[in-house]
């Protein structure tokens, strides 16, 4: 693994981290506002997190 | 009675976890036993140990002694196709030390792969570090295949015995008490929720894929287990299954949205065709990558935390990284369930997109709120 790959991997992780943080934040806010909808929000959150993770991992493997 | 059962299960699980790590430690201890040339050698040996755990092999090695060059375990059958099917035991390779001759052809074993060669057993190493020798088609029962077969048999017996108990009583016995809520969860919360009224046809596929992935993931965490779902060939097949089920489930409406998107300009329709076909293919691709990368990452993280102990070799690092590796192990347990859930949920969503009934444009306008 040489330096450009390492930098690329780092950038991917930063991007994925920001994305996951935003999803988590939005889900938290949603649950705080409407606790009765928490199940649906959680399911949607997991789906979106999984999709984002998929992109992140695909990029990491290519890097 | 029930409390006792759960308690004993927890104890067994904890013991398995501790045994896993203590065993891994012992294993690495054996390999890192030579303190002559410090860090570089240790690093190389750790890398080798990680590779041994991650990669597939023709041997079911329980543990090995590097110094004496002894491997404890058993060889698995090799099945290759090279102008005729040839079946023999991998023990004939003697872990890559011997050249095997079958019907006038010679084979050699190198880095868990079988290569064709001549009588001298020479390998020509190419520029990229891999041998350029021809490889015969390999259909061997490797470690991953072996563990998958065992898992399939285990799942079969567990679920058949569980189904039998319903003939005489309402509640299942033993492990069925844990599995019943999971089955109901897959049926109601995954299949019914996302697919809708036509869900029942796809429940058996979703249940199969859920429990196969879950059991294989859990097998990757126990001692002597193989990292099956962390191998990309396995996840390719799983993703292809979802792909084919989705395509065969697809109704008129689904194909129309791929090849002739309604209500847009004809030129846009032509532009949309390749994009839709690409979207059809990226769905199983992302399923494949997600499962593979998650399981591999979990394994590598656990192994590298154990490896750190041997790099630093102080008691603080020993205690600290031991704790960390237990933490990663528990996280791996959560990830094993989560990945099985996500794979099943996304498969259900893709099937749902394929069987969805047409939303006519009038209906859509009716649902829109009047501003």
Detailed description of the structure:
- The complex is a heterodimer of chains A (about 60) and B (about 375).
- Chain A has one domain (about 15-60): Up-down Bundle (F1FO ATP Synthase), CATH 1.20.20.10.
- In chain A, about 10% of the residues are buried.
- Chain A is built from two helices and no strands.
- By secondary structure, chain A is mainly α.
- Chain A is elongated.
- By secondary structure, chain B is mainly α.
- Chain B has two domains: about 70-140, no CATH class; about 145-355, no CATH class.
- Chain B has helices at about 1-30, 40-55, 145-170, 175-195, 200-220, 230-250, 250-260, 265-310, 315-355, 360-365; strands at about 60-65, 70-75, 75-80, 85-90, 100, 105-110, 115, 135-140.
- In chain B, helix 6 packs antiparallel against helix 8, helix 6 runs parallel beside helix 9 (about 315-355) and helix 8 packs antiparallel against helix 9.
- The longest helix of chain B has about 45 residues, at about 265-310.
- Chain B starts with a helix and ends with a helix.
- The relative contact order of chain B is 0.10.
- The chains are: A mainly alpha (about 60), B mainly alpha (about 375).
- The interface of A and B includes residues 51, 58, 60 and 61 of A.
Summarize, please.
Chain A has 63 residues and is mostly helical.
Flag low-confidence runs of chain A.
none
Helix content of chain B: 55-70%
Strand content of chain B: 5-15%
Major pleated sheet of chain B = 3 strands, antiparallel
Query: What's the gyration radius of chain A in Å?
Result: 15 Å
Q: Give the full name of the CATH homologous superfamily of chain A.
A: F1F0 ATP synthase subunit C
Query: Widest sheet of chain B: strand order?
Result: 4-3-8
Which descriptors would you attach to this protein?
heterodimer; A: 63 residues; mainly alpha; F1FO ATP Synthase; 89% helix; elongated; B: 371 residues; 3-stranded antiparallel β-sheet; 10 helices; 8 strands
């Amino acid at each position: 693994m040489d330096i450009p790959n390492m930098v690329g991997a780092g950038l991917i992780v930063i991007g994925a981290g920001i994305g996951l943080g935003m999803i988590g934040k939005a889900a938290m806010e949603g649950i705080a506002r409407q606790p009765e909808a928490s199940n649906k929000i959680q399911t949607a959150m997991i789906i979106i997190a999984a999709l984002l993770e998929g992109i992140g991992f695909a990029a990491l493997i290519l890097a | 009675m029930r409390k006792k059962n759960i308690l004993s299960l927890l104890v067994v699980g904890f013991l398995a976890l501790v045994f896993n790590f203590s065993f891994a430690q012992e294993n690495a201890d054996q390999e890192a036993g030579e303190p002559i040339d410090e860090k570089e050698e240790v690093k190389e040996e750790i890398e080798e140990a990680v590779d041994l755990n991650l990669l597939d092999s023709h041997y079911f090695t329980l543990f090995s002694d590097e110094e004496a060059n002894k491997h404890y375990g058993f060889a698995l059958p090799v099945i290759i196709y090279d102008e005729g099917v040839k079946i023999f035991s991998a023990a004939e390779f003697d872990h890559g030390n011997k050249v095997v001759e079958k019907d006038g052809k010679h084979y050699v074993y190198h880095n868990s792969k079988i290569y064709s060669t001549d009588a001298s057993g020479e390998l020509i190493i190419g520029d990229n570090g891999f041998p350029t020798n021809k490889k015969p088609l390999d259909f061997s029962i490797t470690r991953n295949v072996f563990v998958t077969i065992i898992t399939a048999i285990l799942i079969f017996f567990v679920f058949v015995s569980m189904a039998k108990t319903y003939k005489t009583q309402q509640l299942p016995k033993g492990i069925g008490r844990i599995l019943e809520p999971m089955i109901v969860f897959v049926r109601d919360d995954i299949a019914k929720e996302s697919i809708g009224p036509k869900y029942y046809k796809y429940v058996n596929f979703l249940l199969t894929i859920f429990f196969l992935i879950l059991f294989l993931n859990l097998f990757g965490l126990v001692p002597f287990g193989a990292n099956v779902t962390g191998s990309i060939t396995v996840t390719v097949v799983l993703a292809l299954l979802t792909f084919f089920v989705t395509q065969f489930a697809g109704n008129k409406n689904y194909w129309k949205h791929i090849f002739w998107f309604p209500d847009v300009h004809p030129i846009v329709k032509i532009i949309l065709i390749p994009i839709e076909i690409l979207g059809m293919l990226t769905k199983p691709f992302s399923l494949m990558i997600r499962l593979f990368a998650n399981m591999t990452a979990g394994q590598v993280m656990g192994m590298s935390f154990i490896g750190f102990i041997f790099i630093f070799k102080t008691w603080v690092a020993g205690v600290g990284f031991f704790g960390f590796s237990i933490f990663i192990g528990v996280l791996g347990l959560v990830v094993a369930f989560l990945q099985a859930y996500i794979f099943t949920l996304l498969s259900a969503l893709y099937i749902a997109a394929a069987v969805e009934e047409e939303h006519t444009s009038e209906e859509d306008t009716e649902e829109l709120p009047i501003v």
